[in-house]
Amino acid sequence: MSSNVTIEVTSHKDKVSVVRQRAILFGAELIHIFISTLSETFQANGMLTQVVLTSSLWTSLYCFVCYFWRSKSYEWSCRSVSLLHALLITSLSYYCTFIQGPWPFTDAGGPNTPFQESIAIISVGYFIFDFFWCLYFQTDGQTMLCHHFVSIIALAICLITGSYGTEIVATIFGSEISNPLLQCRWFLKYSGNRDTAIADLVDAAFILTFTYSWECLRYHLDGKIL
């Protein structure tokens, strides 16, 4: 009886391993096809090199965090990189949208500015890194993988066409502004401080920030606000 159970458990683990390997290979093939298809367009102005460089930098940063904080989990290291990306890209997209302009709700669809392209390149490099990380470690479901894949495609279209940078950067700001708080919630839970006053404050700030950003979008789309 015991040997039968052992065989069944081993068989299940083998099946999971095979499925995981196939998923990784499938995702890698998708990215390879995607990058190959776009390579000629990017290479025309050196954007492919910049995308590869930024993705390599995010990956190197992750390896750096893993090396110097060996006692932490791989997810802890990845979320540290995600937190840094969220803080950086939120600050840059805020400046680009609200200070430098143009305003996305009146001047959408125009040509990209160099600053907008820089923001898009930084983000697409990060999303490529995080897509492969999620694919390999299987910590998130298909929803997150689809989110990252769609984000990569949207940012690539912006870079290829040389347009839509205004609304893309505004979208990045709206979607990333609550991300630092989301990561802080996870770190508090990881460190055993989930049931503390600070955690409650972070939760409240996250809910307010997330709701406000989406409500502002709804206001500009239909002229109404709660």
From TrEMBL:
Location in or out of the cell: Membrane
Keywords of the record: Membrane, Transmembrane, Transmembrane helix
InterPro entries xref list: TLC-dom, TLCD5
Membrane topology listed for this record: Multi-pass membrane protein
Taxonomic source organism: Octopus vulgaris
Pfam family, one: TRAM_LAG1_CLN8
TM stretches of this protein: 48-69, 81-103, 115-137, 149-173
Residues in TLC domain copies: 71-226
Protein's name according to its UniProt entry: Domain-containing 5-like
GO terms for cellular component: membrane
